[in-house]
Design a protein that fits this description.
globular, five-stranded mixed beta sheet, alpha+beta, single chain, 14 strands, about 10% strand, HNH_nuc, 17 helices, three-stranded antiparallel beta sheet, DUF222
């Protein structure tokens, strides 16, 4: 069957029973080829099968919308009975959902038929997935109706081109721009919900999950990355992910050793709220705190802290082959301390790691990048700053970090143009790399969110063919997608006038990825976290992580 045939049968069919019937009647899509002997071979046609997969995805979105209709009808049977939403218990018991996940699902469903009606219509039409819809609903919660409507329109336009995780990042920026005055107050409220959670996992593993202020999380990540890179010896067979996990444990043990040896000192009030409050989440270890769903319905309820169950069906577990407490992927053994073996850190190695830190070996502090408008630094405006790897941060946090000499600062004028680098001692090649990675914060493959500081800088026109080493010919590609271009038949055309990248898949489909629109986002500019990395990162830190090439943590 030709692509035109499949496209013709699917074109214009709205998701629902009619589209399901068409898809059910297609069967496997095949194409015929003639080999050298003249024998016809029947082969799978990937190009046409992608069209079929897209159609099934539209059906799935329609099903999610109809499911929302059904659960709202059940909940409606209890309306007016009491102030409690007792319909939630009926739904949770009947559909085997947790109470928190059911409450979140009902909240999203009601918003999609009220305040976020356009998003609900897009879901029912199969234009976006449920996870896209839930991200939009939750992002708009702090905004008034008029502002929310304007932001919703922009997010819906982006939702057809972005993954849910990418959409969530854009939503944070849009909300910060739309309501900068409320950013500080929302941060103060959210900060009180910081916590650490413990969840048992199969096979002797466990997941530790920390909800932290963005600046604290960025410092922790940078310290882990730095420590995991310093301790590797020639016979160390651990992956970079395993070394990071071991470094986190070592940092915690170091804190205990320091407190034991020197006394707690100022540790008692470390990170305390300005008002001195230290609220408890009120939930046991391993249970979801209010607003967080540990086992979501069909598409899963979205966690209020930004975590959505990964995939259409979520059972509250880490995706196959991946755990947050030490990843298991591609046959690797996660980093652990139960036994010393290949890819694992022994007790002796962990002790040596702690001793290395306690010995006080000096090293350059980890560099973390912040971009902030000069007007915010001076206090004349409340435009949010932008923290590398996170996104917009409240004006008060941006001012505090801008005054901290440990942070890399890029100061921008009102048009978003960098006016101060904060450092002036880099070689020209390093400056070029910084500029390219500033323009493209992530890998430029469709849907990839690998930070550009972990990517290779690829020459679109090869140097051997006369391609220049300049901003007009360099784009960041993670190691996996760099190989896809060089080895797997993916074609890439870089448009230097717009900065966009057009990819052509081996199946013949084209996808265009646009860089962040600086004219639309004049006050934020994502910068690389490590400004001294060479043009080609070391393999262990390149675009294909040691855990199997996943470009971002769940949800993907």
């Amino acid at each position: 069957m030709s692509e035109g045939g499949v496209g013709a049968r699917l074109h214009g069919v709205c998701p629902g029973p009619e589209l399901i019937a068409v898809l059910a009647g297609l069967g496997p899509v095949r194409r015929r080829e003639i080999d050298e002997a003249g024998v016809r071979e029947v082969l799978p046609d990937a190009s046409e099968q992608v069209l079929v997969a897209r159609a099934w995805q539209r059906v799935s979105a329609w099903v999610e919308s109809r499911l929302d209709d059904a659960v709202l009808q059940v909940a409606g049977q209890w309306s007016g009975v009491s102030d409690e939403d007792w319909g939630r218990e009926e739904i949770a018991a009947g559909l085997r959902w947790s109470g928190l996940a059911t409450a979140d699902r009902l909240e999203v469903a009601r918003a999609l038929r009220g305040r976020c009606l356009l998003t609900g219509q897009a879901l029912a039409a199969g234009l976006i997935t449920y996870r896209h819809a839930a991200e939009i609903v939750h992002a708009l919660e702090p905004l008034d109706d008029e502002t929310a409507a304007a932001v919703e329109a922009r997010l819906l336009d982006a939702a057809e081109r972005k993954t849910p995780a990418q959409l969530a990042r854009q939503a944070r920026k849009e909300v910060a721009k739309a309501d900068p005055a409320g950013a500080d107050e929302r941060h103060k409220k959210a900060r009180k919900g910081r916590r650490v959670e413990f969840t048992p996992l199969p096979d002797g593993m466990a997941e530790m999950r920390a909800i932290l202020p963005a600046d604290a999380a960025a410092r922790l990540r940078a310290n882990i990355d730095q420590l995991s890179g310093r301790v590797r010896s020639g016979d160390d067979t651990r992956t970079i992910d395993q070394r990071r996990a071991d470094a986190l444990v070592a940092l915690a043990e170091l804190g205990v050793l320091t407190a034991t040896r020197f006394g707690s000192g100022g540790l008692d009030d470390l990170g305390a709220d300005p008002a001195g409050e230290t609220p408890d989440s009120g939930t046991p270890d391993g249970e979801a705190a209010p607003g967080r769903t540990s086992a979501g319905p069909v598409s899963g309820g979205r966690a209020r802290d930004g975590r959505t169950p990964a995939g259409p069906v979520s059972g509250g577990r880490a995706p196959a082959g991946r755990t947050s407490g030490g990843r298991a992927s591609g046959g690797r053994t996660p980093a652990g301390r139960a036994a010393a073996g290949a890819g694992q850190a022994s007790d002796a190695e962990m002790s040596a790691l702690v001793r290395t830190v306690l010995a006080g070996r000096r090293a350059a502090p980890p560099r973390i990048a912040l971009t902030v408008p000069l007007s915010t630094v001076l206090g004349t405006t409340n435009t949010p700053g932008d923290l590398t790897g996170y996104g917009p941060v409240p004006p008060s946090m941006a001012r505090e970090l801008a005054a901290d000499s440990r942070w890399e600062k890029w100061i921008t004028d009102p048009g978003g143009v960098v006016t101060d680098l904060g450092r002036t001692t880099y070689r020209p090649s390093a400056e070029l790399a910084k500029l390219v990675r500033a323009t493209y914060p992530t890998c430029m493959f469709p849907g990839c969110s690998q930070p550009s500081y972990r990517c290779d800088l690829d020459h679109n026109i090869r140097r051997i063919d006369g391609g220049p080493t300049s901003t007009k010919n360099l784009v960041p590609l993670c190691r996996r997608h760099h190989r896809a271009k060089d080895e797997a038949g993916w074609g890439l055309v870089h448009h230097p006038d717009t900065g966009a990248c057009t990819w052509t898949s081996p199946a013949g489909h084209t996808y265009t990825v646009a860089p962040p629109d600086q004219s639309d986002e004049p006050d934020t500019l994502d910068m690389p976290a490590d400004w001294t990395r060479a043009l080609a990162p070391e393999p262990a830190l390149a675009g294909a992580p040691a855990s199997g090439g996943l470009d971002e943590p769940p949800p993907f």
